[in-house]
Amino acid sequence: MIENKTETYDFTSDIQKRIVAWLLAEKQALPENIQYIRPEYFDNPILASLTELLIEFLNKYSRSPSEDELIQEVDIFLEKNDKLPRDEYLDVLLEVLELTKNGDPSYIKDKAVEFRRHQAFKRAILEAAKKLAKSDYIGIVNSFNEVANIGNENAGLRSLSDVEAKEVNWLWKNHIPLGEITLLIGDPGVGKSYLSYFLSAQVSKGGYWPDKPNRQIKDGKVLILSTDEDPNYAIRPRADAAGANTNNISILEGSRDEKGRIKILNLTRDIYRLENILKKDEDYRLVIIDPLSDYLGRIDSHKYTDVRWAMAPINALLARKYRVAIVGIMHCNKNTSLQVLYRIMGSMGFPSVARSIWLVAKDREDEENQRRYFSPLKNNLAPEQDTLAFHLENLGSVAKVVWEDKPVEKDFDIEDALVPPERTSETKRAKQFLIETLKDGAMLNTEVKRAARNEGISAGTLKRAKEKLNIRAFKESGVGGKWYWELPEFTKMTAMAKADAEARSQEGKPESVEEKKTEAKDDTKDKDASVRDKILKVRALRKETEE
Fold first, then answer.
1. Tens of pLDDT along 499-533?
2. Domains of the chain
3. CA-CA distance, 458 to 447, in Å (whole number)?
4. What are phi and psi of 407, to 5 degrees?
């Protein structure tokens, strides 16, 4: 009689028989499933032999055997090996065939993966001793990494046809999505925290959003994590000023060390604390983290991979799992030469994870220093939104957010609100220069740059102005073709209309002495170098290139 190996784990003889039955029952999937189960994995040598026969049949005929074909293969095998206990083999075979008609395939499939992983780890441990004797440390690590990946080879792989298309759920429609991370950024002291208290107040009491003041929102609970604001002197008074229902707002101050002292939460380590809070109460709709970077432990916040590693569980385990909006508050750095999106403190890992990013900035032209802009920088899940404006109404020791009725004008550029005033005026002058220079048509970029230098416009300022005007750069066809700049058609037509209107307004006026002098100077210029001749030449060249 054949004896089984001693079973000291969960994979009993019955489970192993069911695994072989699963291989037989899943006929179409046999080529895929059989590659994961090795004959030597089985404690019962009869099951090992049956698995080996399955592999041989598959290799020979490229399909799974029928019941009769398998019985025939076993019979041939036993004839060749006449010293094996025939009756025991046939009893196990009949039991396996009976099991193919019963049982839960998905359950057995999961068990098969566990069985494979267990046996593979056992083999890796035994082989590790041999590799250790040879100082093959990399081989040991690679073996265990390979085994650890068993069952995850196709993890996350889905056909797009199996993916259900869903509408985005919003905390604030088209502004702050549920189930995602939103960043609220700005220079220190502009009112980001005050705006977060406005958000928490509206959620806590079921209030209204400024763009839909007549549509009441669903109320819910708010969780606040803040290292910048004191709960007694800042958070509670400001929440009261915003009209919050404080029964629906909770503050998570931190975790306690071995001496009972409160320390800042490290979300790369203590994320389970937030998860437990959200798991126990499904009414939470908003989590505010102020500032976000303080809660990520000792990672290098300027290293992209570190930030992505720290932010991934916040997004997956908190935002998406519990369908809450997570608003992280962040400061801008001092480098005003960069575009606003690149001024977020830390690496680009922060804005890459967030689906929505909003900027809070001061209105420099406001004499009372109370007006603020709330402007979109990134909004992947919604159409482009207008910039809104609010005022910080002084209530003595605190202030509250009061929104303006209408959005900011369409041509407003939030970039101008963050750069120093002197740079703003420089950019405006450069934009006007480009409009005047290119209004009659495209010009060589080298000529434009040379003229800009003559006007005292730096290369950086010229580049910013070019980007703001969406000036098109195109190249002549052929090797060594030159580059040209050209205004967008609408900007060009507007500039020409303005120039035409100014020219008409000057008709009939007597010429001044200065105008006569200027006219005399113009007559002495080289006619071949006139702007008109240049433009006609470039237009003809461009038409030829396009053809």
1. 666 666 665 555 544 554 455 445 544 444 454 56
2. 13-148 (1.10.860.10), 178-416 (3.40.50.300), 420-546 (1.10.10)
3. 14
4. -70, 165
